[in-house]
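in:
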């Protein structure tokens, strides 16, 4: 039995992952912002030992305590999945920094504020697996979501450094680069064939964590797509509406 800690447990993908861990008999501590949704995820994990904490991750000063309380609740942390995030309003973020800053805080600085105490705990224990959901949006700036993408890109770099730092301690760090998922987070987006489904995405995430994969594209076909997107010359990129359009 593993002890599994999930931050952002009420997201569609994280809730599905929690159910997978629960079916395997793992012990869970779930942390999320919405108490009602958090209770619902806990009910979906019935049969497993589950504890919960209500938290707003944008309260950066509280996140170290949240990690410490979660570690105390579990006794030890074998797996930690950080899954929270928010697309925000790209157009609003272009008009005023007061709208851009919350996107950066949710998707980057709040994650780092959790990773610092979490990494220190696992490094001292010389064991554990950390997995963080980022996005393919972090691999190239596009007009439709570049504020969000910038936060995810910064997070990708942070995780690269953290992974190498923790390697000698036997702690793995998995960067989960998700493509768009058909979930409440993208409810206002027109869906197409490249959208993943939460259930399948969660299965891929758990497999990547189990295998201690350094970086995983989810779904896996993004591993083929993103090198093309990254390497397209900017002059050409700007002339291709499906890449550079809103």
């Amino acid at each position: 039995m593993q002890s599994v800690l999930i931050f952002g447990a009420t997201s569609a993908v994280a809730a599905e992952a929690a159910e997978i861990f629960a079916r395997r008999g793992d012990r869970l501590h779930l942390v999320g912002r919405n108490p009602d949704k958090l209770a619902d995820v806990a009910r979906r994990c019935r049969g497993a030992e589950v504890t919960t904490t209500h938290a707003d991750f944008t309260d950066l000063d509280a996140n170290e305590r949240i990690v410490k309380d979660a570690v105390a609740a579990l006794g030890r942390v074998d797996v930690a999945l950080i899954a929270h995030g928010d697309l925000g309003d790209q157009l609003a973020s272009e008009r005023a920094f007061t709208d851009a800053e919350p996107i950066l805080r949710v998707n980057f600085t709040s994650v780092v504020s959790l990773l610092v105490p979490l990494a220190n705990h696992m490094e001292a224990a010389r064991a554990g697996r950390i997995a963080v959901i980022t996005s393919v949006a972090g691999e190239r700036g596009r007009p439709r979501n570049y504020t969000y993408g910038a936060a995810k890109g910064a997070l990708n770099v942070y995780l690269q450094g953290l992974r190498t730092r923790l390697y000698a301690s036997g702690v793995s760090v998995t960067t989960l680069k998700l493509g768009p998922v058909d979930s409440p987070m993208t409810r206002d987006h027109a869906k197409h064939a490249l959208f993943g489904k939460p259930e399948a995405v969660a299965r891929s995430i758990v497999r990547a964590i189990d295998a201690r994969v350094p970086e995983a594209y989810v779904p896996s076909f993004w591993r083929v797509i993103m090198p093309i997107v990254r390497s397209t010359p900017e002059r050409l990129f700007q002339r291709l509406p499906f890449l550079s359009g809103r």
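note: The chain has a mean pLDDT of 94.
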